[in-house]
Amino acid sequence: MPEKINVVLIGMPGSGKSTVGVVLAKRTRRGFVDADLVIQQAEGRTLQEIVDAEGAHALRAAEERAVLSLAVRGHVIATGGSAVYSREGMEHLAASGRIVYLAVDLPTLQQRLGDYSQRGVAMRAGQSLADLLAERDPLYRRWADATVDATGPTTEAVCERIEAALDG
Length: 168
Fold this sequence. Notes:
The protein has 168 residues and is an alpha/beta fold.
């Protein structure tokens, strides 16, 4: 995998984008960017505070601005879960790297997230995690250059799968 390209991780909240991203960056000698932290720094508040004050659409808009502000090469980028709603943002990410969907099944997401009501998840009122996964999965698959099962294995194993998928 060429060192100058970015590796962009997409997937649901709880899929491991940030956790896997840090380890993958170390393994591949890349920098690491967590889009959620870029949002929080730019907005001066947490993701949940954005959702509470202005709703899920405001968080999606903040995420789009954050993604479009990224001008890095040779990094692993962990996006927020709703990045795939922005065509412009995803085209920007795709122009500088390879996009990997970390696919995780619903029971695993539920276990990993627990009470996700304070996690800054961009979802509509009354929308369940199952509904959100059903809505987003086709978007993740559409944008992905590679899809990696991140349900059960260790972080190292997921990194190995990503590296194999991008080298192949």
